[in-house]
Amino acid sequence: MNWITLNNLEQLKSISDAEGYSVIFKHSTRCPVSMMAKKRFEHDWDAIPEGTSVYFLDLISNREVSNTIAQQFNVYHESPQILLIKNGECIYETSHGEISAEDLAEQIS
């Protein structure tokens, strides 16, 4: 799998309109906890089912997109944070040390 860089609001609209599952990983490049969560997530990447779109948001560089995510999916902003979107709705979100590719995969299965 490869990260899909999320850096504009048009992509967010596409995620909302997509059928099935999409994942958004919100990452702060200034936070060591976020870096650790990202590395752990990438280590277990193979747990995520094939065909799942996994988006990576550098929220420091893309603050407007990050703020829109919080409003659009009705979630409290945190970093790092992972959101599972299904058919335009956030059905699962977690943050910090709770981020796990395996837990995310269980939500998809």
TrEMBL record:
<dbReference type="InterPro" id="IPR036249">
    <property type="entry name" value="Thioredoxin-like_sf"/>
</dbReference>
<dbReference type="InterPro" id="IPR022551">
    <property type="entry name" value="BrxC"/>
</dbReference>
<protein>
    <submittedName>
        <fullName>Bacillithiol system protein YtxJ</fullName>
    </submittedName>
</protein>
<dbReference type="Pfam" id="PF11009">
    <property type="entry name" value="BrxC"/>
</dbReference>
